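Q: I'm writing up a methods section and want to include an example of the input and output format. Could you take the sequence below and give the corresponding predicted structure tokens, formatted cleanly so I can copy it straight into the document?
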Amino acid sequence: MRAYALRLKPGDDLRQQLTSFAAQHQLKAAAILTCVGSLTTTTLRLANQEGPTVYRGHFEIVSLVGTLSVNGSHLHLSVADSTGRTIGGHLLDGNIVYTTAELVLGELPELDFRRETDATFGYKELSVQPAESKPRKSPRTIRK
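A: Here is the clean output for your methods example:
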């Protein structure tokens, strides 16, 4: 496993930054190892709901979990408000960082996460594949 650590800054969109990071580093199979921080806007798709639910205020990120890939990600976020009330659901665009979001991601280079439609409910679900092996380069000879 290869680890990446990053910090998002005020005003960053949590999901958009993760998607951008995955594309920039061509992550085919990664997972969120940890995330802490705060948000001013939280946008989630709650369980068994079709559309987004938006919450405005100040929230602490208490959990971010899931799989991350250039081929599609599945991420769940839990946040707590100032009373400790906690809500969670599918991470959507529109989760805006308040002070910081500190993340550690783990890349699994031997795997390739893909999304394939599952006939049971029609959702695109995780399909774990072995990573395509890259042709090994021959050692170079340096001549003087």
